[in-house]
Each structure stands twice: as structure tokens, then as C-alpha cells.
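User: Structure please.
Assistant: Input sequence and predicted structure:
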Amino acid sequence: MGHAADAGRDRLSNLRDDVLGHILSFLDAKEAGRAAALSSRWRDVLGSVHTVSLEQPERPYFIYDRDSLHDRGVARRLIAAVNAALFSRDRRPYPAAAAVPLRALRVSLEGYEYDPDDKSRVDLYLSYALRHAAPEFDLDLRFGRESACGRYDRLDAADADDDGNVAVYSPIEVRAVAVNPPRKSPESNDHYSHRVRPEDEDDVSSSDDDERVARPWNRPSLEYTVLSGLFSCATLRSLRLGYCRLSPPVAIRLPSLETLHLTHVPDEEEHLQRLISSCPRLADLTLEACGTMTALSLLDNMRLRRLALRCCHRLARLAVDAPELHCLEYRGPVPDDSFLTVRGGGGGFPAVTSCKIDILEEATSEEELANLGSFLQQSALTTKHLHLCSARMGSCFVKLPAFPSLRHLELNGSVPRTDDPVVVAAWMSSILRQAPNLEFLSLFFEAAPRADGHFVDGGHSIGELLDAHHLHYSRYDTLDYAPAMVPACLGSRVRKMELLQYQGGRAQRTLARFLLRNAPVLEQLYCGLAEGPEWVQRELMREMEGWVVNETASKEFH
């Protein structure tokens, strides 16, 4: 009888407001608002929501309407939605308890253009959030989502066409699709087609064109400037800001700040340095595309555990005193031998266990290779997980120092079918010989750039992109090359291997054959094939299965 009576009852609504508010805090603010409108019982639950999150939907990779790049109506509606979501927390009937403190505010806005009304609305909801901040408050405020930088997505005059349109590539790992608007030609009726500017085309741009190219998506020069009260928020624990100006006051008091992420912040170098040095508990620092930074001192941040420097191309000096640093990430050109100074670490980082290095410009000279090896030497003794990225897989890292503690190695880069298999296998053998205790090897084969520096998919129509593939297989290819010396780890330690976006071709097949035929203790093999004809996939899978020496190893192909 009791079960029958409970069958039609809304047992969820019987929960306390604070419990329901905690549940709604995991939803987008708009979804939480819709849930609160379900019944009169839920009407005041928004006052118990402790996290407000709103994100403008991402645009598609292909954009053909230039007016859609700056949809101010969408931006303003999102700003208004943030204000509504925050102030609805106060709409509680008297004498109900006050709204719960705000734990997190996360807003991702794209297409923001400076306007006094928009700025006042953003100031309004930001000041509200600071007044109602919980003891551990997280703020994520971004006014752009474009790729900060990339191996093929740099924005310079050489990438613009006659109309000043810039080819920008998506920030995903396989940067394979260009999103510059289409250009119709009188010879073609295909409104999807667009061309990539030839290398030999000579075009002298005006100063207005240069200004337009220098800013992603023709972003206006005036950014939103955050409230000065943000820099005296005693409860602020995490701060993520993107595409806005800081202009910090002289006195900065952020005693609780542990995480600081800055992306495309145009403030002067001394302002950024002063902000970083004023955070005594800083444990996680990310600087991304901060073009004003030429020197960075982290001598006052003794608690730093994670450091990520991405695309700060003018950064030439880094001084660190962080005995607790565990994770290091760098993305940019090959650093000079004087780039890094580590103090108090006995000649290096004493605790780094995870390291990611992404070299955007190919290292070709002996000096650059030596500088890169010297840079990696600072964390070589303790690193257990190493992630190396370059345009050509492994080409920049042939002079690695020894990594005696390394267990997991990831390599990203392209191995085009036209590459010399001898050279590719030699690169891999040289790298693996520096990791005698390696157990897990992961290779991600990126799409190869064309001769003009763009991805092979750039400049194709949608139909061509859907039909295009990178898979290649020929039964007549000779794959009998192997380096004279098999790395010790491959023969006795490597138990797990991943080949991601495997495309075939003579160079990749030779490399896979060398690795699998010399890994007798391999226990698990995962191969993710690039898209392509089913018959090619079957041939590549059958071939790879035949190369695995250990017949008991589990094999998975996708």
C-alpha cells in the first residue's frame, strides 16, 4: 500500500532547497532556470544555486557569413542572461533565508565589442559575484575562444587574401580544417569553394589591412577591463581571464588565489609580473598568448606546482624557484640556452613528473637541437610522463637527454608517406634509447601540411573534405629497414602501445613494423585508423596483426 501511495509522488521535490540547489548547480544557468520553472515548489530553488555557468555556443568550423563573426545581439543576450541568473538568486519570499554564497561564476562570451552599456552590464554581474563570493570562489571570464596560437594558425599578413580574410585553423590536435570565408569565382557555381592564396602572389596591404590581420576575427582594439575590486577579493581561489584587460591597481591583495590562467591579456609586462608576484599561494599558473611578456620571474611563488607557458613568443627569460613544481608545459619556438634559470633545485627541477613540450618551429640546426636538449635536461631525472610535439614527429628531439624515470612517452607530429623510412625509424630509435624504463608508448600521427604550409584539407570544398582521406596502402612497398640498434626498452619493457590517427603509407608502416616486431613483451596494442576506404583499413589491420610478436597481446583497432 505504501509503495502504491509513493508511486505518484514527486520524491525529488521533497528534498531541501540547498540539496536541490546543489543539483541545479551542475547545469547550465539556462537549464537550471527551466528546471526551476517546473512547479511552484521549485520557484525559489535558484536562490540555493551556488554555481552560475553560461557559455555562448561555438560557431561551426566553416563560416561563410562574415556578419556572424560579430553577432552583438547574441553577446548582449548572453550578458543579460548572466545578470538574470545571478539576480534571480535574490528573489526569495520573506522571511526565507538569503541566497547561498556563490562558489563559481563561469562565462564564456564570443563576439564581445566594446560598448558602454555592455561594459556596465558586465560590471554589474561581476560586482554582484564579488559581493556574494563564497570562501573558495572560482571566476572564469572569457571574451573570446579563438585558438591562441598554433603550428599552422598564426595570424600574419602572409595568411591573408586580397580582401584581408585570414585563414584560421581550429585548435584541436589535428588542425585540419580552414575556416576562412569563401571566395566565389566566375568559373565556378559552387558557393562552398574558396581558395588559398598562392605563395608567389604579391600583395601590398595597407595599414588598415595590417591592423585587421593582426587581431583575430577583426576583433576591435578596445577590450573589456575587469573591475579593480577583483584584485582585492580575499576569497578568490581560481581566476581564469581571456581576451580582456586587467589594469590592476597598485595594491593587489589575493591571499587565497591558487590558480591563475591568463589568455590574450594585453597588459604591460610589469602589470602581469606584479599580479603573479602578489599571489603567495599560487600553485597553478598558465600564460597563453600574452605577447607583452619578455621576462618572467617566479622566484616569489614557492608553492607553484603547475606551470604552462603557451605561445608567449616574446618571452626570452624565465627564472623559477619552485621546489614543488610537478607539471611543466611549454609551447613555442626552441628556447635559447639562456631562457631558463632554476634556483634552489640543485641544477634542475627536483620534483617534475609530467612534462609537455610543443615546438612550433622546426629545429634544424645543431645549436637548436642542443638548446632543446639542455632545456629538457632540467626535468629529465624525475619525469615519468613526457609529451613531445613537433611538425615532424620526433625530428626536434633526436638529441634528448636520458630520462631514467620515464614510463609514458607521447609523440605528436606528422609522418608523411613521402618521408624517408630510414630517417623516421632512426629518429624513433634515437628517442627510445634515452628512455630505458619506458612502458607505454603513444604516437599521434597528425595530418601532414602541404608544400605551401597549410593542411592538406585547407582550401577544399565541403564535399571534397567529406570524401578526402589520408589512408594509403600498397602491397608493393618495401618495409624491410630496421635500425642497427634496437632500444632496450622496446625489447624488455614496453607493454602498451597506441598508434592514433594511423594513416599507413610507407614511412608509417615501416615505423609500425619496426616497433611491433621488436616488442616481445607487448601486452596491449590500440590502433586508431584515420578515416578512409574500408578495404584499406582491413589491409592495414591485417598487416599490423601479423607484426605483433607476442600472440597473447590484446589488439584493438578503430
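Confidence is low (pLDDT under 50) at residues 60-70, 150-221, 450-466.
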